[in-house]
Amino acid sequence: MSGSGQAxxxxxxxxxxxxxxxxxxxxxxxxxxxxxxxxxxxINAxxxxxAAIRAGQTGLLEANAKDMAAARDKGLTAAMLDxxxxxxxxVEAMAVGLEDIVALADPVGAVMDExxxxxxxxxxxxxxxxxxxxxxxxxxxxxxxxAGGLCLKAGNAVILRGGSESFHSSSAIAAALRQGxxxxxxxxxxxxxxxxxxxxxxxxxxxxxxxxDVIVPRGGKSLIERVQSESRIPVFAHLEGLCHVYxxxxxxxxxxxxxxxxxxxxxxxxxxxxxxLLVDHAVAGSHLPPILDDLxxxxxxxxxxxxxxALDDRAAPATPEDWDTEYLDAILSVKxxxxxxxxxxxxxxxxxxxxxxxxxADEAAAKAFLSRLDSAILLHNASTQYADGGEFGMGAxxxxxTGKMHARGPVGVEQLTSFKYVVHGNGQIRP
Length: 431
Fold this sequence. Notes:
Elements: H1 3-34, H2 39-55, H3 57-74, H4 78-84, H5 88-103, E1 111-116, E2 122-129, E3 132-137, H6 142-153, E4 157-161, H7 167-183, E5 191-193, H8 200-206, E6 214-218, H9 221-230, E7 243-247, H10 253-265, E8 274-280, H11 281-297, E9 301-304, H12 306-311, E10 316-317, E11 331-337, H13 340-350, E12 355-359, H14 363-372, E13 377-380, E14 400-401, E15 409-410, E16 417-424
Parallel strand pairs: 3-4, 3-6, 4-5, 7-8, 7-12, 8-11, 9-10, 9-11, 12-13
Antiparallel strand pairs: 1-2, 2-16, 14-15
């Protein structure tokens, strides 16, 4: 690179660093203010933001059309295009999601527990905001609304860094959220979108520990690995969704068929979509052929082991890599296993600790599956597509945390708080 080229790069990096520092300072100031704001003010902001999203639907769809056209030119997969696309129904769902957040109990100031010691000290554990949250996500523009709304409800400021593919869409959604802030008299630093697609902005955000308290990454494996390796800030890890459906020997066939197709094909591009189907050898002959018929009829490509291929020659051979792949597409790896123990071993070895389900009428088998596996979400006789904060009654979510510290599973308003101890005395001194 020429000297002038290096100078231009350095100048661009300086500009990004300055921009990010400005966002950090504004967010820090806003977080201090939000910690003292009453619930009614936050409700006013969220309600106004929902109204702004509805009123701005035409502009949102036009912005999304720009992103979709660019994404098609780049050759993004059908699954990625589905994650990126906004429709009138999805715009309305964003507005409804903000209204669902309004209806949630305000966690800030809630007394989690309290007790009185023999010496008369009365101790309370009280929920408090985390402070400033950095959310890094890829191509789903609705995350802008979900994350902005949840962070505000929990009294946090948020710095949003969406993927370059959704830049126009996310910018339009963030503008609507900031209309809500303005209408309620809240600082605009409470919800900020990084105004550049420059990748160096991510690196800057990950090192801003003087301003940012928690990082929440939501995206593919490469993004999560980068965040975990570079961040100087605590991370709520949202690893890939290598989700499994296990058809146990005591599974009802009709239930197994319905759950499998829904878990894979309802929306293939979400993290709760099933990527591997395990079928007990004892029922492979009776259950697997109709399940494969359903999947293939729905447009799903099946990649199976030798036992699966012996039952249906439409199944392509599965490679070792298939058991470790999050397709986010209409592709499913299928394996016949010799009982519950082998199913659990396969999931423990290949899974990402996200979401797994067992289909069975045997309560003892279900109990063993639910207790021996350590995924963030475990289901019995239900689709993995229920791995969603809204479906859990938590309103929207920022993501599904697969870590074990503080927040696990759907990250909603309660998971976006910490706590402090408030102690009341009447003159006690320690002997």
